[in-house]
Design goal:
It is a single chain. Helix 5 (123-137) packs antiparallel against helix 11, helix 7 packs antiparallel against helix 8 and helix 8 (197-213) crosses helix 11. Strand 9 and strand 10 (356-364) form a beta hairpin. This protein has one domain (114-412). The protein has 12 helices and 11 strands. The protein is globular. Strands 4-11-10-9-8-7-5 form a 7-stranded mixed β-sheet, sandwiched between helices. By secondary structure, the protein is an alpha+beta fold.
Length: 423
Amino acid sequence: MSTPREQHNASEEPNSGPTRRITQSQSRIYAQHEQRQSSGHPAELSSDYLNIPNQAGPALTHDTARVHGRKHSREDSTSASSFKRSKSSISWRDNIDILELLIPSVELYNPHDYKTTLQFLPDDVRSLYEQIHTASIGGGILPGEIQADIIDAEPGLGEHYFRPVDETNLAASKKIWEKMKDLRLTASSYGRSESFEGMRHIFVFAPFLTLVFEEPGKAVPPVCSRIVSISGTPLEEEYIPKLRVCKEEDKDLLDKKIDWVVAVELPKSSTLYDTIIQATETRRLRDFNATEDYGIRYSPIAVMIETRPTIQRSDPLVLLTCWAVARRKKMLHLRQNLNDTRNVPSIPLIEMVGETWYLYFACDGDRGLLNIVGPIPIGGTLTYIDMYKAYTILTAIRGWAETTYLAAIEAWLGAAEGGQSSV
């Protein structure tokens, strides 16, 4: 008997439009890919499935293509004016279509080369994307002081992966390495099936995020970003996105909860903390964020994270986008009495699904649109290289949240100019 996923794939017909559905031939290729995964072979996809020509340079490759849930069409271009939507091709239904009905409008873009993506992103996340791109190449992401231990576990790694030896970091590097080994062993025990996502959430994703954002043994700085589980916290009702046309089965998709956020803790003596309280209370709002979590009432949310499997009815990108729309509406509410035309500060959205993770940027677009730019692969748990890529990228995101993002929030609230935070 065929599975729901196979029935869904088999029912798709070729489409000559800009977002192509998978054909029976592509469905067969995907089935072969899943068979290779289950047998432990490397995850490789045919260019027939990807629907893109093999290209030299930084364009989308087999390694960076979305395996679980996103595909790119042959018509995709590297020009900003002709980016095509990312599309969920293997979910219970095409939930991504719902985003086209959101108020305000949302545009999904997948610029699949570095240069075009960099030009397309706004200033407040451009330097962060540069760091992400550098880490994704893999150069210098591994600690040189434990090079022998890492090569023993993953033979054949080139010298370019390793940083110069720094003996002052030896103890910390060893501690992180031991944690990486434990998490890799745990992650591999669940295989590549998304049916174990609940177990990964508890025993892989949560410890990994804690390793990045809490760093056991280190003193907590005055300004710090922390990972916060909000899986039990809804959006504030007035900020739940609305649809131009809403079917009965769609009503429960827009107010779903996400798993985690990264919230930036501020010193109560800081100018920005006072500004946030003033902006919130002046407009008679209960919270600075669009969520009802009292623990982060005055702590700006800098990153949103979802781990829901793509095979479930609610696609993780739909949930993250709905939260980004709600957050944008709240930010506009906080600035409603200011006259200049700034863009709402951008925010990263992260999908931690299976063993390969992806990032999107939610950015202000033209004509009041919200642009969702991605997917951008950020590593995962498939190999130690992937794990250290994810660790390096998430660490860069933490640093960005505590500096550039806070400066953007402060400028948005009218408390600072010139991009310099006074925190």
